[in-house]
Design a protein that fits this description.
This protein is mostly helical. The protein has one domain. Helix content is 49%, strand content 0%. The protein is built from 2 helices and no strands. It has helices at 2-12, 34-46. The longest helix has 13 residues, at 34-46.
């Protein structure tokens, strides 16, 4: 699932907070996957992921 999200992110670019979520849920990005994406980004920056 994470690989699919990453592929969608690359193809569509970074979603805006009010854009539909890249996971396909039709919910705004800020209410759906934004927090998880930020946590994943932090883990990668720390070298944990």
């Amino acid at each position: 699932m994470e690989e699919l999200r990453e592929k969608i992110r690359i193809e569509k670019g970074k979603p805006g907070k009010n854009d539909p979520c890249h996971c396909g849920s039709e919910i705004k990005y800020k209410k759906c996957c934004m927090e998880e994406d930020l946590r994943e980004k932090e883990r990668k920056l720390r070298g944990e992921g």
